[in-house]
Design goal:
mainly alpha, 144 residues, 6 helices, 42% helix, binds heme C
Length: 144
């Protein structure tokens, strides 16, 4: 006779002996399957870390070189559209309001070529690059 209250280990033994799934064990297995499905979702784009206080991202040393390494300047060189070459990048971005201080979500220079969510035909080539742009905007989009 099966006792009224048995532990899970006892129950597995009981099931093995009888080749019969008790409702409690069936429920436990069901829950396990359900729990393993819970992780089956699409990962959102990773959010960049917020800048540390006192840590400053330099436009000239860190941001502008990205426009060169990511080949933005093959088009944005003053010929097509605006100029992202090192000497003119800041004034072009400022005059077109492409970087809104402290608001990366409203800054086309961050959102439009974003590698995951951007709609530009050309994109930043790494998350590290777009994270640098994000940090620079969060620090006030300075000409530094
Ligand atoms: C193949 C040429 C080409 C390349 C490479 C390119 N762009 Fe562009 N970009 C354009 C053109 C053309 C437009 C305007 C039409 C449009 O919106 O797509 C534009 C528009 C933009 C805009 C929107 C400007 C506005 O007024 O809203 C931003 C920001 C931008 N580019 C940034 C970049 C960055 C950053 C890179 C490098 C990761 C890049 N682009 C690479 C051709 C290019």
């Amino acid at each position: 006779m099966k006792p009224f209250f048995i532990t899970l280990a006892d129950e597995i033994q009981y099931n093995m002996k009888t080749h019969y799934f008790t409702p409690t064990l069936a429920l436990f297995l069901g829950l396990l399957m359900f729990a393993s499905c819970e992780y089956d979702f699409v990962e959102p784009a990773p959010l960049p870390p917020l800048p540390e206080p006192g840590d400053t991202t330099s436009f000239a040393l860190e941001v502008a070189p990205i426009f060169e390494t990511d080949a933005c300047i093959s088009c944005h060189n003053g010929g097509i559209e605006f100029d992202l070459t090192a000497e003119n990048a800041y004034s072009s971005i400022a005059s077109r309001n492409l970087a809104v201080p402290f608001k990366p979500e409203e800054s086309a220079i961050y959102t439009y070529p974003h590698p995951q969510t951007g709609e530009h035909s050309a994109k930043y080539k790494s998350n590290a690059h777009v994270n640098t742009i994000f940090t620079w905007i969060m620090q006030g989009a300075l000409d530094n």
